[in-house]
Amino acid sequence: MQFIQLLHDFRSKKVNPSNLELEELFNPQKLYNYLRNHHWKDGIDKEFLEEWVQMNISKYTLAENDLNDFQVIFQKLDLPSEIIINLFGVEKDNNVKENKPKIQNPSEIPSVKDFKKFKKWLLERIKDIEKLLN
């Protein structure tokens, strides 16, 4: 839920709506694809990632498993290690700094190189989060 709200916030603040088709304005998956192809060619916006992890909109407090999931996702997206360290205190090789939680079972997540499988996995996680919130 947080991710979808942030997508729409990003769109309203940084995207000219005349560049979007009607479906891209309101369909989160199509909006994400548009942003990835036009605004995030060099990687997802760092501020967007920080806001997502902070959960300021939903006021949800991330559990250790949630943090682990975020860390694995961000590593699979090949984010620069300084972003991962700033967000979690974790280096790309899973060395933990400041006693933050370690990543568990990263092999369960499909490689981002097979984007269809990764996308399916990510959308399932988002659905799981939405179910927990409802």
How would you describe the overall organization of this protein?
The chain starts with a helix and ends with a helix. It contains 7 helices and no strands. The longest helix is centred in the last third of the chain and has 19 residues.
Mean pLDDT: 75
**Percent of sequence in beta strands:** under 5%
Sketch the major β-sheet.
none
Alpha-carbon distance between the two ends: 10 Å
Helix count equals 7
Q: How many DSSP E strands? A: 0
Total separate domains:
2
Category from helices, strands and their pairing? mainly alpha
Radius of gyration: 15 Å
Helix content: 55-70%
**Shape by Cα distribution:** globular
Low-confidence stretches: 91-106
Write out key terms for the chains shown.
mainly alpha, 134 residues, 2 domains, 7 helices
Secondary-structure blueprint of this entry?
Elements (H helix, E strand, L loop, with lengths): L1 H13 L7 H5 L1 H11 L7 H9 L9 H13 L4 H8 L26 H19 L1
Helix pairs in contact: 1-3
Concise description?
This protein has 134 residues and is mostly helical. The chain has helices at 2-14, 22-26, 28-38, 46-54, 64-76, 81-88, 115-133.
